[in-house]
Amino acid sequence: MDSSFRTPEQDREFMKAWEALKQQADNTVSDRILDYFSSEPGRLGDMTASCGDLTLDYSRSAMSLKVRDELLALLKHSGLDAARKAMFGGELLNNTEQRAVLHAALRGSARPTASGLGDIIGEVDAALDSMTRVVQRLHSGSWTGFDGQPITDVVSIGIGGSFLGPEVVVEALRPDWHDGIRVHFVANVDAADILNTLEGLKASNTLFIIQSKSFTTQETLTNALTARAWFLGDASVGALDDSAEALGKHFIAVSSNVEKAQAFGIDPENILPMWDWVGGRYSLWSAIGLPIACQIGMPLFRKLLQGAAAMDEHFLTAPLEENLPALLAMIGIWYNNFKNIGNYAIIPYDQGLNDLAAHLQQVDMESNGKSVQRDGKPVFSQTGTIVWGGAGTNGQHAYHQLIHQGTRVVPVDFILPLRSRQTGRPLSERIGIEQIQKHHRMLISNCLAQSQAMLTGKSLEQARQECLNAGMNESEAEQLAPHKVIQGNKPSTTITVPEVDAFTVGQLIAMYEQRIFVQGVVWNLNSFDQWGVELGKQMCSSILPLLEGGTDASELALDPSTAQLVQAALEAN
Ligand code: F6P
């Protein structure tokens, strides 16, 4: 198994830089972020960087400019150049599965030169053409179902990377939705998920896209079988002579396992490709993005790809001091490895991006939640960070309390669209554009207030004075004031985009993908396998037969707690 991207010489320098940063962490324990603004007059400009119109202001990070420079020096010795070349050149970066990692080729920014890959660019173009054909037929109403009615509802069935990315993009781009089509997502094996979706649908107007790279994922196949039973259970379908032909008009697939998809009953003409060189969590840019294209059309899907390509280009060419993915990665390394802060929150002030954190949770935690290095040796530091978050302002009335007054530090990435696109929605005329704009001004001011409160906080004296001003006497003020103190000095970054459109969403997601890649290089991980999810899948396939009555529990060496729970489930059913 190949080891690090660092040469032995780089590795020595890397470890030296790592030790120096440890020292910096000790030296700066009592620093206050606010003080950096006075001691470092150029800080705001030096800690603002952009890729086109997307801007990152990380001046409120808990680090001096000196620490920033030392982090970038560490990165220079990390082997990033070699790793970037390997990835974009199509080398087998995923060394435990012997696979290239070429999601960047899907957006046209990788031109792989490694041998044995075949005509990747040609295959990507052909897949885009197939997507275009599907979308054109849907949008023109010429994709008709078994009884000649046009398709109005598309149900995407898939989980993990075959769900999260497409879902967040579809939700983010609601102002761009094509009128005649509504895309739905089903992921969970809990029957509630698919039943909730099917309840509002009619077989004659519904198209299912079975999204599974492997076509072996239990949840997806179970939901696909349920969808098929629902479809075939429709009285009009049941009355047909050839229900298999009808099925062919209502089920398509995106998969690299053509054989299994065909065995399910999908017309080979309607199986769009996926490839080994695209990881599931990086696949929204491939035909796995078909639900996105169905909802917003191919021109905007291509804009999404262009946004991601612009970020790739920036990632490849911008100096590290201005390189957004590199900067975000190193800010995260500083917190995770030197400040002992193991989490970060992604809080977009945009309802459509509510699920961005859920998508990036998979991308980050499935990629970098690892305990061995590329060569199988134990890691030398903490790795993957816990990612969480959700849309502002909702979180302000939920978890922001802990961010402001809790004992843990939660670095936050605030994502702020400067303009709202909601004014373009049909209802805005009836409600009045000014009223819609008012919503957005509130959204912006809330976002700015949160990051400001995290930075400045409220001192005991300010809290005491506030109590007195509210009419309390001295003793009441003394008692209440400590509860109102906000420590402040809590780090955040703010990422602004002009508005949430296909291009900026592409930029944003690619920026985080590359951030995660950079961190994987620093930690010397294979960020592109996910063996950790396998054990649960294996154990599930032994437990399931127990619940189905096919196996005797005593045949399995279950731990006592699992055995008790299996018994409880059997008794309840
Ligand atoms: O959870 C493991 C995983 O393999 C993810 O990496 C992947 O995105 C998901 O399952 C779905 O896989 P598939 O597309 O093969 O159904």
UniProtKB/TrEMBL annotation:
InterPro entries: G6P_Isomerase, G6P_Isomerase_C, Phosphoglucose_isomerase_CS, SIS_dom_sf, SIS_PGI_1, SIS_PGI_2. It comes from the Bacteria. CDD domains: SIS_PGI_1 (cd05015), SIS_PGI_2 (cd05016). Its EC number is 5.3.1.9. Keywords: Cytoplasm, Gluconeogenesis, Glycolysis, Isomerase. PROSITE patterns: P_GLUCOSE_ISOMERASE_1, P_GLUCOSE_ISOMERASE_2, P_GLUCOSE_ISOMERASE_3. It is found in: Cytoplasm. Its main location: cytoplasm. The active site is at 366 (proton donor), 397, 537. Pathway: Carbohydrate degradation; glycolysis; D-glyceraldehyde 3-phosphate and glycerone phosphate from D-glucose: step 2/4; Carbohydrate biosynthesis; gluconeogenesis. It is an enzyme of class 5 (isomerase). It catalyses: alpha-D-glucose 6-phosphate = beta-D-fructose 6-phosphate. It holds the Pfam family PGI. Belongs to the GPI family. PANTHER family: GLUCOSE-6-PHOSPHATE ISOMERASE. This is Glucose-6-phosphate isomerase. It comes from Allohahella marinimesophila.
